[in-house]
TrEMBL record:
This is Large ribosomal subunit protein bL33. Keywords: Ribonucleoprotein, Ribosomal protein. Transmembrane segments: none annotated. The keyword Ribonucleoprotein applies. The gene is rpmG1.
Length: 54
């Protein structure tokens, strides 16, 4: 399967300032702007917002 730029690999960095990141893929056609997901940050021990980093 060929990799294309429609579903690029992105990094999600914690807004809590811990430097913890998740790596995922996103569909650029459905989500053209930066992605924000609420995920668990083990450094803080709670759920925080993770923002897409380019």
């Amino acid at each position: 399967m060929a990799r294309n730029e429609l579903r690029p690999v992105i990094k999600l960095r914690s807004t809590a300032g811990t430097g913890y990141t998740y790596v995922t893929r996103k569909n650029r056609r459905n989500d053209p702007d930066r992605l924000v997901l609420r995920k668990f940050d083990p450094m803080v021990g709670r759920h925080v917002d993770f923002r897409e980093e380019r």
